Amino acid sequence: MNSEQLIALDQQHVWHPYASMDNPPPAYPVVSAEGVRLRLADGRELIDGMASWWCAIHGYNNPYLNQAMQAQMSDMSHVMFGGITHEPAVRLAQRLADMAPAGLEKVFFSDSGSVAVEVAIKMALQYWHARGQAEKNRMLTVRNGYHGDTFGAMAVCDPVNGMHSLFTSVLPQHYFCAAPPLGFDRPLEDTDLNELEQQLKDHHQHIAGLILEPIVQGAGGMRIYSPAWLKTAAELCKQYDVLLIADEIATGFGRAGALFACNYADVQPDIMCLGKAITGGTMSFAATLTTSHIATTISRGEASCFMHGPTFMGNPLACAVANASLDLLESNNWQKQVKDLEQGLHKHLGPAVSADYVEDVRVLGAIGVVQVKQAVDLGRIQKMLVDEGVWVRPFGKLVYVMPPYVMSPEDLQTLCEGMLRALKRYFNA
After folding, report:
1. pTM value?
2. Domain count, the chain
3. 373 in active site
4. Which residue range(s) make up the domain with 14?
5. Angle of CA points 283, 284, 287, to nearest 5°
6. Are residues 241 and 274 in the same domain?
7. pLDDT on residue 160
8. Are residues 245 and 158 in the same domain?
9. For this structure, is 276 an active site residue?
10. Which of 11, 51, 46 is nearest to 27 (CA)?
11. Same structural domain for residues 235 and 283?
12. Residue 233 half-sphere exposure toward CB, CA atoms < 13 A
């Protein structure tokens, strides 16, 4: 198929994420990916600033990851996990437990980030049920949060400013409080957690857990907040006997500049969700980690087990490539990679703050955000970005990048400058 045929058939049959099927905008056909570049069917190459929605941290077509998958396929691509185990899963579980904040020793595998969040919520509910406190069956969360698109996950996303208000009437009803104030270095003020503490004080007897994205709220606004706020929130959870669930799906494995964003605040959550970068962007996979205490309590409850079990849980192919991705994370010195990206993002995006259409520029680790004053038209600005030779996927007022860790300084400069030129062209048209 040529590009025109591919696009025509795509528009006829394929429903893309958060896209209309009524006069859908054309998608850009990609025929191959290598390193940090996507090659389009028309021959153009784009520097990828999105790392395929933040997961391709080692770039594309990485030979080490490819070899790991090829070797595993020669043994088995998949086998059921019920009553069966295998070395890739066991090794991965041990490595994740060793890497994670202290105490997170038990690992439950699933196949996507949304499911990892569903698992975490079910763990919290089943834990309190096993404790004889089944009335603790609601969640508490902060506004501007995003935790996924399945029903349990949607219920703890921001019900007003999020993407799921259409489903509010049929979702479980949980407790919400004010989002953390913006600013990684912002000093903590006495009133910053007043609403959170009031919700805990009033409803802790019904709250199973506080779920939040540590330090960086992703799709709910690309908001970066302070470790001091997170640390205080964790202390309040202990005070009111509420579990802390850390959704590190976007921030895990170094994206925010720490291996896990919880590490910035020296916080040990009771449950932690991982996904996205866990396989280096090669396969859909996720994990939910918890403590021995929670796992044992659930296992001694009425059901005598945890009531969840995805068909592709512990997929050997995904486990093998996840192990390989962790190898690369260590051998490539992710700390230096992310620090270099952070410095480059500050340097090349920072000047945009002086533009009259820009409200804010913020950077943390391998995350760079330009927040503009009015929402952009995605189809229009996407074409301008592609014309600049860069792949960036804005939403609302946020034009941001989360590049692969392997991006060179030269490519990062080209990415950022292309993004800013497209923005200037868009707002000055």
Report:
1. 0.97
2. 2
3. no
4. 3-58+333-428
5. 120
6. yes
7. 79
8. yes
9. yes
10. 11
11. yes
12. 35
